[in-house]
Amino acid sequence: MSVKDINVNQATPCTSSQGNYLWRDPPQEKKWADCVHCGMCLESCPTYEQTGEEQHSPRGRVYLIKAVAEGKLSVDEHFANPVFSCLDCRACTTACPVDVDVGGLIEEARGQIRQAVPLKGWKGAVNKFFLHGVFPHRNRLRSLGGLLRFYQRSGLQKAVRKTKLITIMPQHLIELESIMPDVKRSHRKTHIKAKGETKHEVALLTGCVMDVFFSDINDSTINVLIRNGNDVTIPTNQTCCGALHVHAGDREMGRKLAKQNIEAFEKAKTVIVNAAGCGCMMKEYTELFRDEPEWKKRAEVFEEKVVDISKYLHDTGYEKPRAAITTRITYHDACHLAHGQGVRQEPRDILLDIPGVEMVHMPNADRCCGSAGIYNITNPEMADAVLKSKMENVPEDVEMISMGNPGCMMQMALGVQKYGRSQKIVHTVQLLDWAYQKEVGDDHHVRLKD
Amino acid sequence: MSVLKIDTSDKHIISLAAIVGGPRSILFKKADLLAYDCDGFTIHKHLPKAVVFPKNTEEVSKLVKYCSDHGLPFLARGAGTGLSGGAIPVNGEVIISMVRMKKLISVDLENRRAVVEPGFVNLKLTNSISDRGYYYAPDPSSQYCCTIGGNVAENAGGAHCLKYGVTTNHILGLEVVLPNGDIIEIGRNGVLDEPGYDLLGLLTGSEGTLGIVTKITVRILKNPEGKQTVLAYFDKVEDGSQAVSDIISAGIVPSALEMMDKTAIEAVEAAAFPVGHPKDIEAVLLIEVDGIAAGIEEQINQILEVCKKSNVREVRAAKDEAERGRWWANRKTGFGAMGAISPDYLVQDGVIPRSKLPEVLKKIAQISEESGLRIANIFHAGDGNLHPLVLFDARIPGEIEKALEAGSLCLKACADVGGTITGEHGVGIEKREEMRFVFKEEEILAQTNIREVFNPDNLLNAGKLFPTPGRCVEIKKEMKV
User: Fold this and answer.
1) A164-215 pLDDT tens trace
2) Chain B hits for A33, Cβ within 8 Å
């Protein structure tokens, strides 16, 4: 049965609909057309590993997404379950013999589901509060940061923990609360000159969550950039990249944020990103503008400018630090860096260029940790199972785990705490920055956890 | 977990769920079942009644007994990567999924054997023992994800079976749940030459029609000391085929001898693991030798010489392990790579005497021309195991039928030169009728009589492996033409 046959009698509000996809921007046929159901993706999938159920495997999900277009299945809660159980980790695309863009299909399918079956209950509340109320608004994020800072500094955090007030929160939120990074106030200039001669001019995405919870990493990124001859601009009208929205099926909001960022970075030649999830999203902005040709063109130009900090340093060159940091570390591949952007060797090379650093191989280093945006909040049980198998692969005898994504850093910190491990969690660029700092005698300490 | 209520009034579903410990181990809603309506063979589709996930042999036995007592058709499924439809529930079966029984039970290096549960993934066995210098030899291209239980059912082969043999040569013992629920062990302790009938040989490759394997003792091998791979490009298929024959005649036993033709090269180069094969050649050969390090270089030189004599355009050995790995990834993802040049494909699995290679390839080209469908060829040239891949578009009315017919004709071409219709993918539902190309009525009856003994009610994986009586007349007619 062809797609056209099914369409004939469908009264649909949108002209580009297929089968039972009734809204704008449905999953694209060309994305699933290459899938021949061979199954090479199965073992790459963390949720298939946990369940053994094919509807929770990449080829199963692709099959169901296709079935809706063919009119065999409707967009309802039963369809939503396998589509939303996906971590969107993209490991299947790496494993796929023909690079089927499963992640893209999942995001498009989620867009349809969210319009057909709006979220209810606490999941809906969490989504609405964070995705609409907080992340897109820098001031509100800062205020939230301020609140958290107040919570941490005022003794309220201690009080809450002491009085067991915390026991009224769901278990996974308690766990997340316990690894919440120390929130710092950040006042940053919008232009930072290179130290010495200016070789390049770059703009930096400071991110939404990143700048509140991980402003240290943004500081390190800036330090490393200016140290290597880059003038850094931080456009003030930039906003959240929209990844969390698109992952959650809110493509409308994703488009709004994408447009704002495309405009904010219009003048920049290079856009540096230090969060894998944001980088991957921004490199896929064109996907959001399939039926807006003007914006699609601008998005294409924008995508080319976006680059992960580790790849940028690797490609443009950086000074090897002279001071040593004597430590044994292992590296975790953030999904949206390794599978999403193909950046695997660059961060490892940077770490190995730091004198004194000894790298220990982590088996299945490019396996998802279960963070996956806000997946660990919306699907705590699965996220936990995925984290458990991740932690089993972390070598015993290392002091630090390095990576390039804030979501992973939170999740891995949770893993370290939960499974009684001792490792410190660091961003790749932090370690490089500390090595530079050490040259001038300013010995930094890992600040993520006390 | 079992406190969760089952949302159905179907008493069979409730009973089956009770056996496997509750709703988390059973699927019965349409959206969940749809992903199980086919396996790697996507032409026939049928929804199962339910999918159950047992955790151990006892649960499998109870499930089987329940189905048997209540007349419910049932079948076992592994990763569902089979290419002949052996795991497709054509009768609305209860699928007993073995994927949660995925433990590596024991490794006995001294006696070179390992015991695995059926859901254990093929490549994981090698990965679990490679640091100690051992590996599991059968390596179907789907080894990244296919299960050893499925390999036993299909008697799976692979690129390296030329030297080391197919799955049946590596199975030392099986624990099997028979279709009445009884549990038996055959090939106890992996001791060779058990007295009595060779049930191990009978069960391996029986395509899930005689019983459900719940525990497997396999042979493991010591890693070869050395390994080297040669890549050779030919302007003519005939020259490539000649090189294959000459390598074997020279007394070399390569561990693998693989060939891809022009269309196959187009696909792998358009897919995710391209290695830069020239687009204008007619055949690429991948030749691997392994063994004690001392003899490898000499064998490689011999192979290079043979290829040069056969008008090779370019031939060279892999410069390092990374290059070798890239060549193999390119070859092993070959079937999936068809997605890059065609919406659907159907893979056939004929076996022919090596010397007939040019003749059969010509015939296949003719079939392709007459059907109007492209046919790519990827094959284990060393043991004459051809994989013609018929490319088609299921959305175009009539193309599925055309593809099936072209595939069937390819198999006939193999049978006609003294070959057979399957080397490693099994018969399944795909090649049932083509069994007539190689077996007489009496020969098929001898086999279905055996099935009768094990599976008298034919509730276990019915409709697979053997032709349905109705259609054999037509096939016979076709054979006479």
Assistant:
1) 555 555 566 666 666 666 666 567 889 999 999 999 999 999 988 777 778 8
2) 339, 343
Structure pTM? Answer: 0.89
pLDDT, tens digit, for every residue of A386-426? 999 999 999 999 999 999 999 999 899 999 999 999 999 99
Chain A touched by B395 (CB under 8 Å): yes
Q: How many CB atoms lie within 10 A of CB A300?
A: 12
Of A54, A72, A98, the CB nearest to B336: A98
Question: Would you say how long chain A is, in residues?
Answer: 450
SS3 call for B65 = helix
- Nearest-by-Cβ selection for B38 from A37, A57, A73: A37
Q: How confident is the model at residue A119 (pLDDT cuts 50, 70, 90)?
A: confident
ipTM over 0.85: yes
Please tell me whether residues A414 and A351 are part of one structural domain.
Answer: yes
Domain of A51 in residue numbering reads as: 3-116
In a domain, A210, yes or no: yes
Q: What is the pLDDT of residue A345?
A: 97
- Condensed to tens digits (0 to 9), the pLDDT of residues A303-344 reads 999 999 999 999 999 999 999 999 999 999 999 999 999 999
How many interface pairs between A and B have CB atoms less than 8 angstroms apart? 108
**CATH class of this structure's domain B342-481:** alpha beta
- Closest Cα in chain B to A76: B31
For residues A270 and A229, the answer to whether their CB atoms sit within 8 Å is no
Cβ contact (<8 Å) for B271 and A97?
yes
Per-residue model confidence as pLDDT tens digits over B168-214: 999 999 999 999 999 999 987 677 777 889 999 999 999 999 999 99
Task: Render pLDDT for A360-386 as a digit per residue (tens, 0 to 9).
Answer: 999 999 999 998 877 888 888 999 999
Residue of chain A nearest B27, judged by CA positions: A53
Whether B342-481 and B11-97 are alike in CATH topology: the answer is no
Per cent of chain A over pLDDT 70 is 81
Q: Measured between alpha carbons, how far is A130 from A141 in angstroms, rounded to an integer? A: 9
CATH classification (class only), B104-222: alpha beta
Cβ contact, residue pair A96, B42, below 8 Å: no
On chain A, the residues whose CB falls within 8 A of the CB of B273 are 97
Beta-bridge partner residues of A272: A204, A307
User: With an 8 Å Cβ cutoff, are B30 and A78 in contact?
Assistant: yes
Tell whether the model's pLDDT for residue A277 goes beyond 90.
yes
Partner residue facing B142 (CB), from A2, A33, A39? A39
d(CA B358, CA B362): 6
Per the model's pLDDT, the better-predicted residue between A77 and A269 turns out to be: A269
What is the Cα–Cα distance from A305 to A236, expressed in whole angstroms?
18
Whether B261 contacts B268, CB under 8 Å? no
Closest-CA distance, B40 to chain A, in angstroms, reads: 5
| Residues B11-97, CATH architecture | 2-Layer Sandwich (3.30)
CATH of B224-341, one of 3.30.70.2190, 3.90.1030.10, 3.30.43.10, 3.30.1050.10: 3.30.70.2190
Dihedral sign for Cα atoms in the order B391, B394, B398, B401: positive
Comparing CA positions, the residue from B353, B480, B362 lying closest to residue B419 is: B353
- The strand ranges marked E within B98-248 are 104-108, 113-116, 134-135, 171-177, 183-186, 212-219, 221-222, 226-234
Our count of domains for chain A comes to 4
